[in-house]
Write a structure and sequence with these properties.
- Helices cover 52% and strands 21% of the residues.
- It has 435 residues and is an alpha+beta fold.
- The longest helix has 74 residues.
């Protein structure tokens, strides 16, 4: 239980640190992207405005002459040395008045972006595919040149910001890589902090387990003496007791027996918690052990006029701890008798099965009791858990039997589960490795 709590706390701490780290990385990355975009956007808008101011005379001259001639400034005459900044001046008829074109590999892509410009946009950033199958990132700005309310031309300024984009992507990838490293460190810190939290819990649970073990051990002797003393008084023929006194003695004997069984169960669970009980495996007859359990429970079954059906086709051997398997069968069959209706039956059978994990012996105990609602199927194996709504409070039991059964199966590296529906009985299935 402590190990599970430790893992859960580690997961929670790591998740919390991870969320904060993700939020931090997200904010930083968003800030980098937005800051870079805004800065480049403002730059290109200023550039478009400056080009429009410088070339206004040329635009006015073009409009005045009303010529359809396309006037292109040759690249070698007016060319940005970096090849990153370029512009096009386009009149209202879609003709280019003047252009300072980008490097040749970008010209076709840049021209397509200008010719397919959305009039509602004043800036845009886009990724284009080059003839070399590589990609480039371009940013554009449009500035309208007007005289009064009359549109004369539009200046489209552009810039190749591929280098900025690559640096930005590398920065983000580096930041993400560092964040994964910090996430690993956060997991280590979470594990350390979880250990600090669970250490006092572990010590407390150890002391409680030790107390239960010591108390149970100390109670066994006086309970045994009390139980024996009651039996001795009942067998003393020289002292005649009244019927009322005999009834009191009988009730005291029954309660002493129940208390002794409870103490034995608590001691068993306490020893399993501290690891004092070790399995002593050997090959034995499962059929013979089952018959011994049925003989032990014959009186309890007869009291309720119940029939215990043991479906055995052939003798079966099992490599396990015979004492613990006896205890397991006793718990399951005894529960079947307790919770079944009078004049009903309990069926016991087993078979050999094989799957990808290996060879197993399947033990099944079926009863005709009230069944177990779906929401309680996992809880029934918890200590002291009882379904009072479905089962009578008058039924003897402490709610420890199935916990012990669970431990026996787990100790054998097996599996135990229940198939049941409310008011339709229970079928307890146990799978024990047989190697």
């Amino acid at each position: 239980m402590i190990s599970k709590t430790h893992k859960k706390l580690t997961t929670v701490y790591t998740a919390v640190f991870g969320l904060f780290l993700m939020a931090f990385v997200g904010i930083v990355c968003s800030g980098l992207i937005w800051g870079t975009y805004v800065e480049r956007k403002e730059e290109i808008k200023i550039l478009a405005n400056e080009i429009a101011r410088e070339q206004r005379g040329l635009i006015l001259q073009h409009v005045k002459k009303e010529t359809d001639t396309i006037s292109l400034t040759m690249t070698e005459d007016d060319y940005d040395i970096s090849g990153q900044v370029f512009f096009y001046i386009v009149d209202t008829k879609g003709q280019i008045i003047k252009a300072d074109q980008p490097v040749p590999v970008l010209r076709e892509s840049a021209y397509d972006q200008i010719m397919n410009w959305n009039p509602l946009e004043d800036t845009k950033i886009t990724t284009v595919k080059l003839p070399t199958d590589k990609t480039a990132v371009l940013i554009f700005a449009a500035h309208k040149v007007q005289r009064g309310d009359t549109l004369l031309a539009t200046v489209y300024a552009g810039r190749d910001v591929t280098a900025y984009a690559r640096v930005l992507i590398r920065s983000i990838l580096t930041l993400m890589a560092v964040s994964f490293l910090f996430l690993f460190l956060a997991a280590m810190i979470g594990y350390f902090l979880a250990g600090k939290v669970t250490t006092p819990m572990e010590e407390s649970i150890k002391r409680k387990k030790q107390f239960i073990a010591d108390a149970s051990h100390e109670l066994r002797t006086p309970l045994s003496v009390l139980f024996t003393s009651i039996e001795a008084v009942e067998m003393d023929l020289d002292n005649r007791l009244s019927p009322f006194s005999l009834q009191i003695m009988s009730d005291a004997k029954d309660e002493s027996f129940r208390l002794k069984k409870l103490v034995d169960d608590l001691l068993t669970l306490a020893r399993t918690d501290t690891g004092e009980i070790e399995l002593k495996k050997e090959i034995f007859s499962l059929t013979l052990i089952t018959k011994q359990v049925l003989r032990s429970l014959r009186f309890a079954a007869d009291e309720k006029n119940m029939n215990i059906i043991f479906d055995v086709v052939e003798p079966m051997e099992l490599n396990a701890d015979p004492e613990r398997i006896y205890q397991l069968l006793f718990i399951l069959i005894d529960n079947g008798i307790k919770y079944s209706l009078p004049n009903s039956e309990v069926r016991v059978w087993f078979e050999k099965i094989q799957n990808a994990a290996g060879h197993y012996v399947k033990i099944v105990v079926e009863d005709n009791g009230p069944g177990i609602p779906l929401e309680f199927k996992e809880q029934i194996f918890q200590r002291f858990f009882r379904i009072d709504a479905a089962r009578s409070r008058d039924i003897e039991g402490s709610g420890l039997g199935l916990s012990i059964a669970q431990w026996i199966v787990d100790a054998h590296q097996g599996e135990i589960y229940v198939n049941s529906e409310a008011c339709k009985g229970c079928q307890f299935v146990v799978l024990i490795p047989n190697t």
